[in-house]
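Q: Hi! First time asking for a complex rather than a single chain. Here are the components, and I think there are two in total. Is that enough to go on?
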Amino acid sequence: MNATVYRLSRGVRLRRETDGEAMLLVPEGIVTLNDTAAAALELADGSRDLDAIVAVLAERFDAPQDTLAQDVRDLFDAMLSRGFITG
Amino acid sequence: MSGVAQPRSLLCELTYRCNLQCPYCYNPLNLGRPSDELSRDEWLTAIDEALALGVVQFGFSGGEPTLRAADLVALVARATAGSGYTNLITQGTFLDDRLLDELLEAGLAHVQVSIQAPERELAAAIAGTDVHERKVEVLRRVRRRDVALTLNCVLHRLNHDTLPEVLAFAEREGIRRLELANVQFYGWAYRNRAALMPTRAQVEGGAELVAAARARLAGAMDITYVLPDYFEERPKPCMHGWGRLALTITPDGRILPCPAATSIETLTFPNLRSSALRDAWYVSDAFNRYRGTAWMPEPCRSCERREIDWGGCRCQAFLLTGDAAATDPACALSPDHQLVTVYRDAPATSTLVPRRPDPALR
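A: Yes, that's all I need. Here is the structure of the assembled complex.
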């Protein structure tokens, strides 16, 4: 059980292009995101912990829950270390 | 033009005016005339054109961009309305509560504030004016708000030894993003190169200090440490390639592939007053001249890093060799590499020339 909830840090914004391409806009930088990463970060709105985010993604992407959980954990670790999300 | 990607970032240099006289400033020696500055309407048009081209990152810099406070607020609002991300790069001395309120209301996402040193006396000696305490107030003011904050300190021979104190200052002030950039030698900084060049001991000691601080502050502070080109064996991937991702517009409307590009005297740059931004990006000679890899001489042309380093910095190549198409001498493979290595153990000189003071701002 992981009760930590995640949200985008101050000054970090998620952007969707009309063609569906997603990017994370950060101080003086752009991080391009794949579909899963974009969806995970959209769900990081301060109301969900990791399990809750993975549960939503598992329904949406029809993927094994443990694979998704590992992907999201890796993504969030990287984002936390750069300060792009807080949790 | 086929094969040319859309630009993603635009740096708007609103003015070259500044109330500080930092000798490491990258602005050109010729700071131009305030009467030649683009109007607010011209800047608004530039932002609209940039959004249409695909730009998502907007930087507002100078000089000191907050000297055009009302225009700055209007431009941040315009870029934000087009879903752009806005960064203010400032030395902070005019960033009072009211201006900060207006900028945040307009959608400002990120503020980078610079200090010259971790304490008042040295900071005043470098900036030519005593504003350090004001900057500390500004940092605290910004930190309380819903906006990203980066603390920036340009490092050079005169302040490099205070790096431990800069780190302690950042930690004490609760800074989450710290940028420690060794001076880059363009404009006034190039003029003062011999006096500002850090020593080998400073550079090597700095890298160790930063590595230790990063390990200690992991997750709490993101620290960027930019080594000086003159101490590297491979060049920096300047602007991630000429005309590849980024544009700069100078106070008087010149459209550049990089903020230092006016130092290349052999190029003529398009101007916003006579050229659409789209034409400047896709068809102008200046943007196409060093785009991609076809222009490269050896050893760049056959180098496996040619699409990593992009040949290094065109401005530095021109400043050091007189040929903007040369391999950046910062690269150890450059036939001109000794032009930078000769500085690594050079003695300090005392011929520091402060940036020309602005009589209207004293």
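A: Chain B has a mean pLDDT of 94. Let me know if you'd like any chain examined more closely.
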